[in-house]
Amino acid sequence: MKLSAPDIAALAKPGQFVSLQVNERGMPLLRRPMGVLSAKNGFIEILFKTAGKGTELLSRKTAGESISVLGPLGNGFTVNERLKHAVLIAGGYGVSPIAFLHEKLKSLRIKTTVIIGAKNKKLVFKEGFNLPEITTEDGSLGFKGLVTGRLEKTCSGLSCGTSAVFACGPVPMLKAVAQVSEKHGIECQVSMESMMACGVGVCLSCVCAVKEGIDTGYKRICADGPVFDSREIVWRT
Ligand SMILES: Cc1cc2nc3c(=O)[nH]c(=O)nc-3n(C[C@H](O)[C@H](O)[C@H](O)COP(=O)(O)OP(=O)(O)OC[C@H]3O[C@@H](n4cnc5c(N)ncnc54)[C@H](O)[C@@H]3O)c2cc1C
Ligand code: FES
């Protein structure tokens, strides 16, 4: 969905999200967070899968309608100056922020390897990527299996200080990606997901467990994330 939102488009960075009021009156009351797929020329794009009430209503919007959009929200991916090779991993609709990051890395002339995973070929979004590696769980497109199989192969050829993995997708996938990256000593940034109520750091409905020395603390995915260094996360799934 393409939205005219000049202020957001001017500010949005890869990994940030927007929060949409899908119904002006009635249910669902809460806004729905969506990753930003692109932001240019006064427009932002989002990519969504109809999963329930909110996305169903969103899918019924027609050209010219107005919708309240809050954003850009959260903290996006960090690209450090030493980065020479980025491995981008997208699972399901997690492809949205990864596609936006891919555009930025292309403009910085940083080498990318893109690995996209989905349940089946109908759910693969590969627009804008140059020869991505694709994995599907049912083998209907690309390699049969999970993204981590391809990541293992890629990681073994990477040099630690100048490479990094960037991932967005379901939490079990992020956990597996983090484990493979950490095993190879490669820095990994993960875009975490949870149900959100306020989306702006007030209600604490979106916290994830993080390491604080030898203790466990909590951070808000909406305001402190959604992107975190994978080594910070206490994985619970
Ligand atoms: C930072 C962030 C970015 C997101 N980006 C996108 C995006 O780019 N595209 C997109 O389609 N969706 C995205 N989502 C999820 C989105 O906000 C909605 O929650 C989801 O689309 C379902 O909304 P719904 O109202 O249609 O479904 P609901 O009626 O609220 O729920 C339908 C089903 O989906 C499950 N569900 C709802 N929300 C989530 C969630 N966040 N994680 C896991 N399961 C959930 C519910 O438990 C239920 O089983 C993002 C979420 C976060 C937190
Ligand atoms: S959704 Fe309210 S604090 Fe994150």
Structural class: alpha/beta
Number of domains: 2
Instruction: Outline the low-pLDDT stretches.
Output: none
**How many β strands by DSSP?**
15
- Which geometry do the CA atoms define? globular
Residue share in helix: 10-25%
Tally of individual helices: 5
Average pLDDT, rounded to a whole number, is: 94
Order of helices and strands: EHEEEEHEEHEEEHEHEEEE
- Report how far apart the termini are: 31 Å
CATH architecture of the largest domain: 3-Layer(aba) Sandwich
**Nearest-angstrom radius of gyration?**
17 Å
Assigned CATH class of the largest domain: Alpha Beta
Strand proportion, as a percent range, falls in: 25-35%
Please outline the major beta sheet.
7 strands, mixed
Q: Quote the CATH topology of the largest domain.
A: Rossmann fold
> Widest sheet: strand order?
10-9-8-7-11-12-15
The CATH superfamily title of the largest domain? Nucleotide-binding domain of ferredoxin-NADP reductase (FNR) module
Named once each, the bound ligands are: flavin-adenine dinucleotide, FE2/S2 (inorganic) cluster
